Amino acid sequence: MKGLWAALLGGILATPAALGETACPAAGLKVGYYLLGGAYEEGRGYDVDLVHELARRLGCKIVQEEAYPRIRVLKMVEHGQLNLATSTIPTADRQKYAWIYPYFYSKNMILLSHHVNPRTLDQLLIDPAVKWGVIRGYRHSPEQDAFLEQLAKRGKVVMANDERDLYAMLSQRIITAAFALPFSYDRWLNSPALSGQVEVLDLFPTSERVAGGLVLAHSDFSQQQAEQWQAQLQQMIKDGSLRKILGKYLSPDSVARMQP
After folding, report:
1. CB 109 within 8 A of CB 201
2. Terminal CA-CA length for the chain
3. Is residue 179 domain-resident?
4. Distance between CA 141 and CA 247 in Å, rounded?
5. pLDDT band of 139, cuts 50, 70, 90
6. How many helices and strands in the chain, by DSSP H and E?
C-alpha cells in the first residue's frame, strides 16, 4: 500500500519534462523562412537543412514551410500563424513572444558604392549622394542601428523587402550604401551586376557580432518543449552536425567566422 501511494504521489509531482513531454507542438511545425545568403533560396539552404534535422531528431512533423519577407515572418510568429523561424537576432521585443536560441554569429559590414567619396561615418551622414538601403524588419548592432536612426532623420534611408531587393537597388544605384553580412554578400559582389562597383568597409571596428537564432513561438511551445529544442541545437553544435550543414552552402572561411 505504501508503495502504491508513493507511486501515485510521484506521478502527481512529476514535471512535464520528467514525464517525457513531446518536443512537438500539437498542430505540427509551421515554419517561416526568408531570403538570406546560403540560409534560404528557392526551398534550399542551411536553415532548411537545420530545421529538417532538428525535426527528425525530435520526432516532429513539418506541416507548413514557406518563405516570406523578414518582417512578415516575425509578425506571423507573434500572432500565432507560424511557430518556428530561423536566422533571427534576439531582441527584447521579440523575446516577449518567442524563445530565440542562437546558432551562428556574424557582423554587418558596410557596402559602399564607388561613386560615393566619403569614407567616415560623419561624412556619410552629410553627403548628399548617400542613400542607405535597409531590409525591412532587420536589426543590426546597437551602434549600427543608432547610425541608421541618424540617417533616417535626414531622409537618407530607403527600405528593401529582402536581400535580393537590396542588392538590386545597389546595382541600379537607387541606393549607394547598405549594411550586409559577409555570408550574404559574398556571391552577390562577384555577380556581373556588382563586380567592381562596391567597396566593403568596416567603420564599426569595436561593434560586436550579432547572433542569428532559432525562433520558437510562445503560443505553440511550452518552456519545457523549447528547452528540448535548445538542447538538440547545442548537441548539433557540439557534434559538428551544424558545421557540416553550413559547409554545404558556405565557404570554409565563412563557416569559421560564424562560430560562437
Report:
1. yes
2. 54
3. yes
4. 25
5. confident
6. 10, 10
CA-to-CA separations, 187 to 33, 36, 113, 173, in angstroms, rounded:
20, 12, 17, 19
Instruction: State whether residue 131 is helix, strand or coil.
Output: coil
Measured over the CA atoms of residue 65, residue 66, residue 67 and residue 73, the dihedral's sign is: negative
**Looking at residue 137, which CATH number applies to its domain?**
3.40.190.10
Is 235 domain-assigned?
A: yes
Q: Please tell me what DSSP assigns to residue 94.
A: G
Round to whole Å and give the CA distance between 83 and 77.
5
Any residues with CB less than 8 A from the CB of 63 and at least 6 apart, and which? 27, 28, 29, 30
Q: Count the neighbouring beta carbons within 10 Å of the beta carbon of residue 11.
A: 10
The CA angle 20-214-82, to the nearest 5 degrees, is: 85
Count of structural domains within the chain = 2
Q: Is 105 exposed, middle or buried (0-12, 13-18, 19+ CB in 10 A)?
A: middle
CA–CA gap between residue 211 and residue 126 (Å, rounded): 31
> What is residue 43's predicted lDDT score, i.e. its pLDDT?
94
Amino acid (one-letter) located at 250: L
* CA dihedral sign of residues 157, 159, 164, 170: negative
Give the CA radius of gyration of the chain. 21
pTM equals: 0.80
Domain residues for the domain of 58 are 26-106+210-257
Query: Which tens digit of pLDDT belongs to each residue from 145-167?
Result: 999 999 999 999 999 999 999 99
